[in-house]
Write a structure and sequence with these properties.
heterotetramer; C: mainly alpha; D: mainly alpha; two-stranded antiparallel sheet
Chain lengths: 196, 105, 493, 499
Amino acid sequence: MPAVFFYLFAAVTLLFGVMVIVSKNPVTSALSLAVSFVGLAALFLGLDAYFIGTVQVLVYAGAVMVLFLFIIMLLDIKAETGKTPNYAAVFAAIVVGVLLVLQVATIVSTFEKGKLTTLEVPLRPKEALAAMGKNALPGIQRDLEAGILPDTKLMGLQLYHHYGFHLQIIGLLLLVSTVGVVVLSKRENRTEGGAK
Amino acid sequence: MITLNHYLIVSSALFALGLAGIIVRRNILVIYMCLEMMLSAANLALVAFSRFRVTDGLPDYSAQALVFFTITVAAAEVAVGLAIIVALYRSKQSVDVESVTKMQG
Amino acid sequence: MSIFSSEVFLAVLGIALVLVSVFFPKIPTRTLAWIGIAGVLASLACLLGASAAETSLPAFVAPYYSLDSHSLFYKGFALVITALVLWLITESEKTLVNYSLDGQIGELVGLPLIVCTGMMWIASARDLITVFTALELVTVSFYVLVAYTRKSALSLEAGVKYLILGAAATGVLVYGIAWIYGATGSLTFEGISASLRDPSTGKGTLLFGIVLLLAGLGFKVAAAPFHMWVPDVYQGAPAPVTAFLSVGSKASGFIILTRLVDSLVISSTLVSVEVINLLLISAAITMILGSLPAIFQTSVKRLLAYSSISHAGFLLLALACRGSTRFDLAAGDVVAFYLGTYLPMTVLAFFVLCVARRHGRGDSLEDLRGLARSSPLLALLMTVAMASLAGLPLTVGFLGKMMVLMAGVDRGYWGVVGCAVLSAAAGFYYYFRVILTLYSGDNSQTSEPIQLSLLSRVIAILLAAAVIITGIYPRPLQRAISGAPAAALTTQR
Amino acid sequence: MSPLEIVIFLPIAAALAIWLGAPARPTSLFAALVNLVIIAGIAFRFDGSSLGVGEFAHVSSRIVLDNPAISFAVGIDGMSLILALLTAIVTLAAVWQIVADKSAPFHIASLLISAGAMGAFLSTDLFFIYAFHELALIPTFLMIALHGHGDPANRRAVAWKTTIYLGVGSLVLLAGLAALVLNFSEGPVISFDLTSLLQQTSSVPAATQEWIYFTLLIGFGTLVSLFPFHSWAAPAYATAPTSVAMLHAGVLKKFGLYGLLRIAQPLLPLGAQAEWVQNALLIMLLGNILVMGLVTLHQSRLDDMLANSSVMHMGYIFLGLAAGTELALKGAVMLMFAHGASIALSFALCGRMRNQVGTLEFSKLGGLATNAPLLTVLFGFAAFASIGLPGLANFAGEIMIFAGTFDPKLLSPEKLSSLQWTTILALWGVVISAVYMLRAYRKLFFGTANSGHYLRDPGFSQRVPLVLLAAVLLVVGCCPSVLLGLIQSAWAAAKVASL
């Protein structure tokens, strides 16, 4: 990804992230977060993670944030007014945040000494094809031969071939959360023993 | 040239923003959004690490699988979380953190 | 039936119970709960009958699934606590129905089974992805369980608190996993352990990830400084759920921590000193912050919450002592041993609270005054539980504490051992205060006699007997942990 | 099954039976009697000369944990036999004299304390020696807090103080024991077994031995009310119900001394001999004898006085321990027995007086002898025994301790050692105790009678426990060889004898 795009999307992600925190109106916060997530998705694309980037837009920016907005509208939550911010908390938050970023900056400055390569390594589909050998499914094989990164296909292979068990766990988790949402959001039923 | 470090700094900044939001904000819904920001920051770090650890010419997809699961889990958590917050709002008519400080001691 | 299929069976049973309770609301919850208990016991029987060398794992789980002595013990642990929690739910059915929205508590019976499945998977996890997904399965289920009785404002508050802090912990946990992955290039415990021997692994990166991961897990096990949520959530959640959180969730956190510490500390010295120091510092703070506030509590549930924190401190000390060959050989593993001692006494205490609640007594200390006159049996059970939690000899609680202290002394962690002694001394005060309250109160107070059903009396007495007998004869527990033949497991409860 | 196991578990079983509804008094009397018969039987047939170093009779061992190697092991030698005998006698007396209306809690507590003491004296595994002692903690706590004398707030405070002191003392003790066990075991297996520890040729360096010994001294010392850690004892005994006071002051408190003699002294000889440990111990025991003696002198109530005197007399036993010579150690064991019997008798009498007279203030009482000749005589026994009058058991013990400190091996021709100076100062304690005991005796039983407060001799049944204890004092006092023959064997084995 050209550097200018990186800086652009990183700025979008972070600036709108700041908006989430500082805006007093929850609707603004939610919308800012959605934009921030779109910026993040762009960063994912820059990292050649096309599938993850798409999912980020679909699930986060699409579904999750809409859910947030929906709830905010439903409950009709007004902007906070008249409250003076808790300056101690603001100060603590800034200190914690700055320290964290500094910490990470210090750590990443040591990378070159270790084995982590920080320079972008070009992807080499041909080499990958050789390494995968017969394990590669036909579709993946074709794409790799053509020199394209079959990101979504590789994710599919990964999820269904290697992480099937975890996919099942996640399925169970989604079921539990469905049950949970039903249980937690049903209205009080005054007639005893009534069905849901 | 954009390096791994750039991505990690952005990720840490996003994480720090989320953390700061949790500390500063009093609206539970906004706090919950900040939590999502923290999760996304983690995802960014994971994807960046996976992209810069090229094995056999491809990014390491196991980390991306984890990112996929994280996103799914986050969605599920949001669903349950919002249900709880709605229930709270129904009983207290407020989503301020001060409405959940009845227990002390 | 293989162990894995018994886990799948439990999850399916859990879903089935939820569905049945929705479509056949006439079926009493009690019946469903006992079906669930039967299912859990069947799985337990299957676990006892199976051997660690079982090879019949489906190919899609095999690479992520280990069946060593640890995972077998923690699986058994999850099953036992789930069965006991379901029993506690039947005991406090009346209370729960009062506080649930429509007099239906079917989900409360089904969800624990799914949680149990998650815990059993955590016990077998070999990589961080499995850990994360299974842990989230457990956590999300607990969000629902904690907030379940939402007619009670406290339960709802507890749910919100657990939700916010739990989600924050998840974020920190994932971020930690990301950095550990960045440093080691691996998401499996073996891979992490192997990369530590690689001299080019960046220590700073790894440590940053470890600190974050430990923070996230510290939340799950109620370790300081991530313990703030514990008192409120324990107080607000329904008592059976609190027991489940206090024992089951903690055990899950500790099996992950054990595996993590093993892969970080034992095979290499790259970060071992730092990790152990982190654990020791956290252990010391946890013990102090757990036991000192406990002195001032007026609610028994809150008291048990702080007690749970201080026990987490002991467990952390035990964790820091891992690799002390003398004691790992000894108890199989001091952490597992301590958890094994923690289970029966905690469940016993919560049982008494459930029954007292059912009979109109709240969970404040004053509400238990004169319980000995209402029910000498309940008072005796609570006395046993408190004595064991305080770590009085001849109860199982003492053995756990003694093992931890000796392991600490053996490794020369004097400062933390000193904190542990302080914490235990404070424990004498607050646990004895509960005992004193049970037996005091003047005769003028009206105290209705409390009747217990024969079955619950038998189970409760068995639990108390387990506390005392295991306290005198701990060999079966030790055998169960160190992976001795399954026959030895039968005596572990 | 070893008879010793029966002796330990019978009281627990009896307590359980009473809790389940068995008639309290017959059950506990039965258990106490059976125990006394068994222990007496063992004592009659006991032949200590056949026991070697660290060997015990009537042994039985059941493994409860593989590693750390803990086994439920029981065994008996001369010293533990004497203390078991004391336990059996005092238990019988204590449960016999219980006359409360709802007596079940009293019987249960007494039996549990008795079982704890028995278990501690008869176990030969450090784990169980420690564990059984703690069995008494909850009953003592509850009995003082709920059924003690005095107003509720006060007795509660006393119960807390006692429990916290004993609890923390036990934790220090546990730390010491853990350090001892860990230092003594080499290789992967850690053993708590006293027999194997005793038979092991220790290679623990002197410095380590010193601080472990000191830790044990503080830990055990707190349980015996060694001077700076004594302040729980007097109020506890003054407040506790009579049977609990008898058992705790008479028997259970001896556990700390027993532990020092059994564990610390033989296993850590270098620690015991260390100069600084010795001096610290001497200062502390002088605190017991002189400071507590003076405190006792100023008490205005009988129960306070007895409780404080009990603390004071522990100093003499510690003196025997400090001397470490065979004669002095035998004297210490002797005095443990004698003091146990005499203080139990004192508290039993004190309890009777409290019940009948209603007050124990010296200033309000007098001339009680007129209607109660038997009690007068018995109280005389207790008082004179406590002073150390020849012919009663305490005398034999005290004289052996004093003589032991002047053992030729310890004497240097030029000057007296700090130990001997301590003994000389300690002798003044005898004078102090004579003053307060005789003064109390005279004030209570003679002098002008105070109207409204009468004391009568008890009926036949209630005389039994009192007479039993007095008889024991007299018999042992007149022919100490009855006990000394048993003790002989205990010290033939001990390494300290070679001092």
